[in-house]
Amino acid sequence: MTDVHRGTPDTVVVGAGLAGLACALDLCRAGRRVVLLEESDGAGGRMRTDRRSGFLLDRGFQVFNTSYPQVRRRLNLRSLRLRPFTPGIIAHTPTGPVRLADPTRRPSPARSLVPDRALTPRDLTALAVLSARDAVLPADLLTRRADRSTAQALSRAGLSDAAIAHVLRPFLSGVFLEDRLETSARFFHLVWRSMIRGSLCLPADGIGAVPVRLAETLPDGVLRLRTPVAEVTADGVLLSDGTDVPAPTVVVATDAATAGRLLPGLSVPDGRTVTTYYHAAGSTPLSEPTLMVDSTGAVLNTCVLTEVAPTYARPGTALVSTSVLGTDRPGRADTVLRRLAELYGTDTSAWRQIAVYTVEGALPAMLPPLPLSRTTRFGPRRYVCGDHRATGSVQGALASGTRAAREVHADLQRA
Questions:
Q1: Distance between CA atoms of 43 and 254, rounded to whole angstroms?
Q2: 2 vs 34: CA distance, rounded Å
Q3: What pTM was estimated for this model as a whole?
Q4: DSSP state of 166
Q5: What is the phi/psi pair of residue 308, to 5°?
Q6: pLDDT digits over 156-189, tens only?
Q7: Partners of residue 100 on adjacent β-strands
Q8: How far apart are CA 176 and CA 208, in angstroms?
Q9: Which of 75, 165, 309, 386 is the most exposed place for a label (fewest CB within 10 A)?
């Protein structure tokens, strides 16, 4: 875009995560004068990638789903140089590893999916029926069902307690960042549908390439980095350095906790916290781009990132990502490393810890009954958007930002 939005803004957007970027882009395209304020040194919010000592380190393990409508609308997927995961997982259960794969896309690994104590013939049939239904039914029909917890939905679908406990719970705990499967079944069905219909990938330049591509399409001068907002005022916003930025309309597009601080009285959900450990190994412990999950709960999931995208490390080095629920408490890194030795069946004593990222509020809690989208209107000329106003996903954040821009534009036209 060219620089056509200079002058006093009619809208300030606070926060250059996915929701803020989507909102600012749509308002700019509608001819509005917008300024997008971001407190950090780059766009992306929680979706950032650091470059350190030859490694690409996403700020917490994240994947990119190609099936999301907002993703397809806004991004040139080819420019991201996406590298896919195996369409399936390896679950480490009390009876040994079980591979859960999509036979329509990867027939060979699917042959190893045979009935055992973790997945009986009845479980395989129930899972196939659930998957087929979620894949073909319209999304709005899935979301109109009476809501309940994911645990209840899986049981009602005919899956056994063992299949849920040893395969599905370990996998979905990493998706929801909670291990009781109390997350809304509406959200579960949408996520399951998106995984069946799309591919889970990583951009060759790290997950942070996604918001970078969006930010590159903003008009010059719209995005202002290192500009923290201290307060939303009657006339606009007050920056932390005491500078006033006047604007009749303000959109708060931050994380839930910050939004609650900037907009007193806003109801925000609790957040889920996750910690990701990055280790460098001299050789790959698993020669395939597959996510492993752990039924013991010692780790949420682990994968060799360089098997997915070799660009994540220098040649000759394997980069392993491992996530756990909660924070990096004392002694936890050693426990994780010992468990990785068991999961990968290899000696991890020489593995080198590269980085640890704890992300508080990585996802909003999404308890039933979950409204999948809520108005962004908070007060007169005051709006709020983000995944905490929709669903905890890339789609949810982008859709909420889109809705904010639409509601702002409609209100300005009526004014």
A1: 12
A2: 13
A3: 0.94
A4: I
A5: -80, -55
A6: 999 999 999 999 999 999 999 999 999 999 999 9
A7: 89
A8: 21
A9: 165
